[in-house]
Amino acid sequence: MSELESLQTEVAQLKAELAQTKAVNQKYLQNVAHQLTAPLGSIKWGIEALKDERVPIGRKGVLLSSIYSQATILVHLIKNFALMSNLEADLELGQFREKPEPIDVMRLSINLANDFQPQALDSEIKIVVNDDSFKKVFQTHFLEIEKNLVAQAASNIIENAVKYADRDTTVLISACLKGEHVGIQIESVGIPITKEEKENIFERGFRGYSAKQKVAAGTGIGLYLALRVMKLHGGGIEVKTEGKLSHFIMLFPRNRVAKGH
Amino acid sequence: MDTILFVDDEPTTSTQPLRMLLEAKGFHCVSLTDMTSALEFLRKEQVSVLVTDIMMPSGDKFPGIDSSETGFHFVGRVRSEFPDVGIICLSVIGDQSKITKLKKQGVLYLRKGETPLDTAARLIESKATGTISY
User: Fold this and answer.
1) How close is the nearest chain B Cα to the Cα of A215, in Å?
2) What does the DSSP assignment read for chain A?
3) Which residues in chain B (46-65) have CB-CB distances under 8 A to chain A?
4) Which pLDDT score is estimated for A238?
5) Cα A182 to chain center, whole Å?
6) What pLDDT is stored for residue A230 in this prediction?
7) Pairing outcome for strands B28-32 and B3-7
8) B134 domain residue, yes or no
9) Which residue in the set B13, B55, B114 is minimally distant from A216, CB to CB?
């Protein structure tokens, strides 16, 4: 093949790749727009129904809690988009721009669980934090972490757990020891994750088949971001599944355990 | 009593206010979350108006359908199997050519968050009864 011919093939390949990237980006943007518009639309209609005298007063409490949970979803989603750009910069630097601080992770877990309580309630799901496990693993010690990043990573996992759990089940948050790591574990019962899906679950934009069958819309960036955050802390995320039972364990190196104030 | 069938995978948040308002007006509202169960319901029960999302699960009878396109397949099915059922699409898709295609099938398209709740309720009511109340 002449040099010109091979150049032409290369150009054609690049063109095809570019077209594919463009298509992926377009689909992603469409998805983002959907993700932002849907909760805002629900909030708007929720408020209109609240103001409407024809809707019985006894049903308005449900509307209020639904508005609240939609607002929570929206805040969480926007935080993810902001985090995405910050994280790329942190990863390029190889370090945090904010200094990690000693954080009481049991308190953090309880606060996060409370944030998702209204959403969980919509599907009759309970979120339980196992206090004893945290006391056993951390005693009075804190964890040296970048709080906002870890909170967002944990939120992404908890949000998934709530979104894909079966009705009337419990999402359990606990602490555990794993070799050289300490972990925060999020356990839920819901849609099964296949072996193949497990391999791709941290890819940006990836969503599993059953996940799409349960909730059609989603950005597929939650777990991607969560893993990036954990890597920046020198840790990772372990995924264990058994049928409908899933465990996501956020692992931190033990040297991040520090004495509390 | 007229039955309005809602198909949306996030019913608690998405269509709840609309259903509350229509129920207050005396309609019977049923909410399902995927295409398979919705078609099964349509085959069993008398439905006046169908209000459906586009991006939603297809359910176990239609495994090959991309969830972002489910509504289009669903509308096509309903049109041929149940020509008398009024169809309203309630979604956030912005692709004008796709919306035009829906309109050609006699579907009324409402964008979530843009149509006021009261207007949406009245449009559904008029599809169901042929009249509009104020």
Assistant:
1) 6
2) --HHHHHHHHHHHHHHHHHHHHHHHHHHHHHHHHHHHHHHHHHHHHHHHHH-TTS-GGGHHHHHHHHHHHHHHHHHHHHHHHHHHHHHHHHHHTS-SSPPEEE-HHHHHHHHHHHHHHHHHHTT-EEEE-HHHHHHHHTTEEEEE-HHHHHHHHHHHHHHHHHHBPTT-EEEEEEEEETTEEEEEEEEEBS---HHHHHHTTSTT---HHHHHH-S---S-HHHHHHHHHHHTT-EEEEEEETTEEEEEEEEEGGGEEE--
3) 53, 55-59
4) 96
5) 20
6) 94
7) parallel
8) no
9) B55
Residue B102 forms part of a structural domain:
yes
Please give the residue range of the domain that contains residue B87: 3-129
Beta carbons of B121 and B21 less than 8 angstroms apart: yes
Q: Which domains does chain A have, with CATH numbers?
A: 3-259 (3.30.565.10)
Alpha-carbon distance B25 to nearest alpha carbon in chain A (angstroms) = 8
Q: Is there a contact between A215 and B9 if contact means CB atoms under 8 Å apart?
A: yes
Distance CA A155, CA A127 (A): 12
Instruction: Give dist(CA B128, CA B109) in Å, integer.
Output: 16
* Phi, psi (degrees; rounded to nearest 5) at B104: -65, -25
Of A52, A123, A212, the CB nearest to B67: A212
d(CA A169, CA A156): 19
Question: What is the ipTM, given to two decimal places?
Answer: 0.90
Tally Cβ neighbours within 10 Å of residue A196: 10
At A100-121, the pLDDT tens digits run: 899 999 999 999 999 898 889 8
Which regions in chain A score pLDDT beneath 50? none
How many domains, chain B?
Answer: 1
- The CATH number covering residue B54 comes to 3.40.50.2300
Give the chain A residue nearest B14 (alpha carbons): A42
Helix (H) or strand (E) holding B49: strand B49-52
Q: Is the pTM of this model over 0.80?
A: no
